[in-house]
User: Fold LacI family DNA-binding transcriptional regulator from Phreatobacter stygius.
Amino acid sequence: MSGSTDGSARGRVTLQHIADELGVSTATVSLSLRSSPLVAAATRDRVQAVARSLGYVYNRSAASLRTARTNMIAVGFNDIVNPYFGELLAAIEETLAGSGHTVLLGTYSDDPVKQDRVLGTLKEYRPDGMIVCPANGARAASLRDVADAGIPLVQVSREISGVGLDFVGSNDALGTEAALDHLFALGHRRIAIIGGTDAMSTGANRRNAYRTYLAAHGMAVEAALMVEGFGTRDLGFAAVHGLLDLTSPPTAAVCFNDLTAFGVMLGLRHRNREAGRDFSVVGCDDVKEAALWAPGLTTVKNHHADMGRRACERLLARMVNPALTPERIVIEPTLVVRGSTTSVG
Amino acid sequence: MSGSTDGSARGRVTLQHIADELGVSTATVSLSLRSSPLVAAATRDRVQAVARSLGYVYNRSAASLRTARTNMIAVGFNDIVNPYFGELLAAIEETLAGSGHTVLLGTYSDDPVKQDRVLGTLKEYRPDGMIVCPANGARAASLRDVADAGIPLVQVSREISGVGLDFVGSNDALGTEAALDHLFALGHRRIAIIGGTDAMSTGANRRNAYRTYLAAHGMAVEAALMVEGFGTRDLGFAAVHGLLDLTSPPTAAVCFNDLTAFGVMLGLRHRNREAGRDFSVVGCDDVKEAALWAPGLTTVKNHHADMGRRACERLLARMVNPALTPERIVIEPTLVVRGSTTSVG
DNA sequence: TTGAAAGCGCTAACAG
DNA sequence: CTGTTAGCGCTTTCAA
Assistant:
């Protein structure tokens, strides 16, 4: 090809060019390209044909300026390497694709300052809505800023208390209770809780549920058995060592998430102990890998794909009707028992 | 607060409002907000203060229309649940955040038709650049369409042969050879290859390297030992059964990726065999979980975080200078030996 | 150092 | 059924 059309087509074909080519107005072109019934079928076809031949590419920025809609949904997460969030993001992206929305992604590694910066940037793209999992220690004002700028927002997985915004997540306390019930029934009376902090809803909810449960079942709540921190493999790995070194070590642990539980299982092996034989460990999330480890990980299933879907649905509903009263949509978790838990030796 | 400013601030504050408030022009406001040296410091400060108090939010769509830059980079992947791509995406997102770019995400599940649709949509957002891992069976025209629309594009991980666009990926053949060398040295003479298709570069490269290696080392290339398919756990799991049922079953397998290898290890266990004892398995990618399985997975490390970073760097370079000659940036993989391989029994 | 004016590419009244 | 016109919010000459 001598590239004659290509040359002019380098991302620079506009409605005007098509209009000129056909001797019609840009309005007609605009309507034709969207297959509006207002325009004659013959005209529509001619316009579409010329658009194609000219290599026309619709310019959403321009349209957005006019319509005040971008068809983008911003997603703010701490971390997408954690498969829990990876899978959650995948569910969201897929659901939104179904309604013609594209995901704009930002991450902030559980750093509230970075979160504010990232959300601020995302906001400037004027997404039609935003799905956010708040950072550890994030303040209500950070999310309110977004909502006050007129962007529908739903919190997913974690929430900021009193922020007055939609939330779709899991019943953390119930999950922790189910895990503790399971261990209690297996005879465990010294149970650690590893991971989570009181500065994120999921951490606070689970740690409080733990405290309450222990008290209600006549077990003392010992600081040494409550290992605070982010839900990483490293935390789990390191925590095991400390716990096993206690004068009176625990026989089981509930973990903030599956990643932490995997770290615990590795730490155990490192000390010549095996989960499900010498020690019981319960995870949380039920990521794909949980079923596949040896032994399989007993874990609290958060139904996170469902959570992602429901967050999208809620957001779309709020986009249609911004006056909706904020709602807390809480999904019941399920305990999945596998090989990593056993009766106390 | 009685919300008087909030009411008008609902995402509707523009430069004009700030200008009116101060009796200056929008030009001055625009310059002030970007801290241009052209404007007096005192003016600048007053403008910025008013902008803040009015709850002004910069409108990137409007700016983009004017500047023809969006500061968005589109990323097109098949699947982000596979931790390999999740980690790759994380590396890309992080790198781009450093240069002030935000990621626009699209996925297409290895479906070339869906890929075309998704890339078409992404294109309309006029991202400043695009990073794409082509779908299985994707044609050159799909990516050329994007590039011809004037959007700088780099292929990552997989490439379409002859498309004449940048590519950042791994030396697939070398990785496969390293895996086979390792198995050969352990005495294996019947080696399967599981996963990958000839319709994606990574699959074709590895399968060809396998064919060549076997021929060069006096082993017959048997169709039954070459299990074609996408790199899923399910494929690995299913393939093992078929392979073990052969009259003369293999003693080892190289897998398309770690996920497939995990599936193989599970399938083995299902047949009362253990990887690293009764059968040897080599993965590819070295995702985080690979080191943590029991036994640890011997795998070909693709350095995918590095790959993501380099893809971004190449893209940024091309954005600065679109005339750059397309380049193939090939990263040397490393074999990581762990417990899933052993000498032939 | 600041303002006026034009225009990026599109859509939405409104008129015809 | 199609054209005219105005304008979304910003940046960028060019003048003053």
In short: Residues 14-16, 26-27, 30-31, 58-67 of chain A lie near DNA strand C (CB under 10 Å from a C1'). Chain A has three domains: 7-58, 70-170+304-332, 172-303. Chain A touches chain B through 53 residues (CB under 8 Å).
